[in-house]
Amino acid sequence: MDATIKQDLPPEGGYQKIQYARNPAKTYFRGGRLLAGFILFNGCTTYYYFNHCYPKVLHEMVEKNGARLATLPLLMAERDRAYLKHCRAIRDEEEKLMANVPNWEVGKWKGEQIYKTLDRNDFNDPILCEYYVHAPYMDFWKKAHEAQIQV
Amino acid sequence: MANLTEPILRTRFTDISAALFTSQNSECKDFELRYVYCLEAYGKSLGESKCKDLKEDLRECVFKIKQLSRVYAISNERSRQLKSGELKPEETYGPIPKPDSY
């Protein structure tokens, strides 16, 4: 049997020295270079965005606006036609409805015009209530509250 | 109560808030202008009788009294006719406006 017994001894040469000195992290660049890098990076991306990407966005915007302006007269004319036709239809319907009511003159209230000092034959724009007078109440309500209802 | 159309003392402080009590920013500006010119021409006491129509037109523009009463009357007449049977059920509503045409 061997005479050497295994002992738990320190390694050869002893342990290393204990580190107690400060060991800060390695700094690659400090304040000045950081700022310069920031400015350089932002400058490059700004240049790229405004000279390459934004013109495409602008082109699409211009095209869309041009289309809107081109179709605007058609839509406005259509709307005006529908408005005037409906005003006429309301007046005819009122004439039909109130045919048997005593002392009712179409377009007047109690024998006198609505606006006394205006010319008799001038067109008087109806108010919202009047525009929807022969329609279901909910249509009027929805139009009156359309700012809140927006889908 | 006195017939007040302007403040008792006209100072700079009363003129500051003069722009609040006006209809010049609404659809009734022409009505108001005509009434006020008439009042200025005739004065307050004579203006009461001469500018009556203009005053009532301004009131009508601001409050829409006659137009609303007309709407009410027509609407009531319609429901009365429906109930009594003069209008058939298919005719409950008259011409319905297209959306967004007002």
Automatic annotation (TrEMBL), chain A:
GO cellular component, one term: respiratory chain complex I
Protein name stated in the entry: NADH dehydrogenase [ubiquinone] 1 alpha subcomplex subunit 13
Region forming the signal peptide: none
Family according to the record: Belongs to the complex I NDUFA13 subunit family.
Keywords of the record: Electron transport, Membrane, Mitochondrion, Mitochondrion inner membrane, Respiratory chain, Transmembrane, Transmembrane helix, Transport, Ubiquinone
Biological role stated in the UniProt entry: Accessory subunit of the mitochondrial membrane respiratory chain NADH dehydrogenase (Complex I), that is believed not to be involved in catalysis. Complex I functions in the transfer of electrons from NADH to the respiratory chain. The immediate electron acceptor for the enzyme is believed to be ubiquinone. Involved in the interferon/all-trans-retinoic acid (IFN/RA) induced cell death. This apoptotic activity is inhibited by interaction with viral IRF1. Prevents the transactivation of STAT3 target genes.
UniProt keyword Transmembrane helix, yes or no: yes
Superkingdom: Eukaryota
Subunit structure comment from the entry: Complex I is composed of 45 different subunits. Interacts with CARD15, but not with CARD4. Interacts with STAT3, but not with STAT1, STAT2 and STAT5A. Interacts with OLFM4.
Keyword Mitochondrion appears in the UniProt entry: yes
Topology class, membrane: Single-pass membrane protein
Subcellular location: Mitochondrion inner membrane
TrEMBL record, chain B:
Cellular compartments annotated: Mitochondrion inner membrane; Mitochondrion intermembrane space
Membrane topology: Peripheral membrane protein
Alphabetized UniProt keyword annotations: Disulfide bond, Electron transport, Membrane, Mitochondrion, Mitochondrion inner membrane, Respiratory chain, Transport
Any Pfam family matching the protein: Ndufs5
An annotated GO cellular component: mitochondrial intermembrane space
Keyword check for Electron transport: yes
InterPro entries in UniProt: NADH_UbQ_OxRdtase_FeS-su5
Family to which this protein belongs: Belongs to the complex I NDUFS5 subunit family.
Function: Accessory subunit of the mitochondrial membrane respiratory chain NADH dehydrogenase (Complex I), that is believed not to be involved in catalysis. Complex I functions in the transfer of electrons from NADH to the respiratory chain. The immediate electron acceptor for the enzyme is believed to be ubiquinone.
Entry protein name: NADH dehydrogenase iron-sulfur protein
Species the sequence originates in: Daphnia magna
